[in-house]
């Protein structure tokens, strides 16, 4: 009886070994092909990632956007490669892909606000409505753009405060890029007395603008009447200058207006009121 049992056990073991051998022989080529595909695929994906980064660098893309796009492309390609490799091994990938899709949807809904800011950042970095160093006015804030990240933009105000603006609203709403153009117009206002000549005032102001080398003569300076106030004839003064000189020209020209009018004997009036005292006791 003992001999018979051992013979049966030897036969069962031999069948298991034979079955494993048959499956191993059948599976070995698939496994080898999957390993080769994985190695070659990872190598090719690495080359593709470097190529994308190189092409984006040549097209002068922002560094953070360039790195992000190349990394996203690499991750997506690796995910496709992983699915292809496990399908080569005979694993059903339909359910796996469905789970990944559901997980991606859940994450997208949870990060809806962040994804909006991210999409806005990508649009800003690609289309460049403003760049680092520009002075912008947006969302009730204004300042010099110090950095543009994928999710937010950093401003420094004139009084040296740091403002952080989310890129979602920044990409979809109005942005005033103050320093985008090379030249800007300085708008000033002044009033002269009704007793003085408008022609003399215009002549004096234009001569003042001509004597400042920072003020451009093309487009030419302009002085015109914009209204008649209670105490003065209201004039507007337009002069053009380089954007970098804007504030210097603004303050210096404002300061120079009064001496220029004084030299032409043109008065700048101020409100006056006549007070009549009635003596009721008389």
From TrEMBL:
Transmembrane segment boundaries: 31-56, 68-90, 96-127
Residue span(s) of domain Mechanosensitive ion channel MscS: 114-180
GO cellular component: plasma membrane
Keywords assigned: Cell inner membrane, Cell membrane, Ion channel, Ion transport, Membrane, Transmembrane, Transmembrane helix, Transport
Cell inner membrane listed as a keyword: yes
Similarity-based family: Belongs to the MscS (TC 1.A.23) family.
Compartments where found: Cell inner membrane; Cell membrane
Record function comment: Mechanosensitive channel that participates in the regulation of osmotic pressure changes within the cell, opening in response to stretch forces in the membrane lipid bilayer, without the need for other proteins. Contributes to normal resistance to hypoosmotic shock. Forms an ion channel of 1.0 nanosiemens conductance with a slight preference for anions.
GO MF term list: mechanosensitive monoatomic ion channel activity
Domain Mechanosensitive ion channel MscS C-terminal: 187-268
InterPro entries: LSM_dom_sf (IPR010920), MS_channel_1st (IPR049142), MS_channel_C (IPR049278), MSC_TM_helix (IPR008910), MscS_archaea/bacteria_type (IPR045275), MscS_beta-dom_sf (IPR023408), MscS_channel_2nd (IPR006685), MscS_channel_C_sf (IPR011066)
Membrane topology (UniProt): Multi-pass membrane protein
Domain Mechanosensitive ion channel transmembrane helices 2/3: 74-112
Protein name, UniProt field: Small-conductance mechanosensitive channel
Subunit structure and binding partners: Homoheptamer.
Main location: membrane
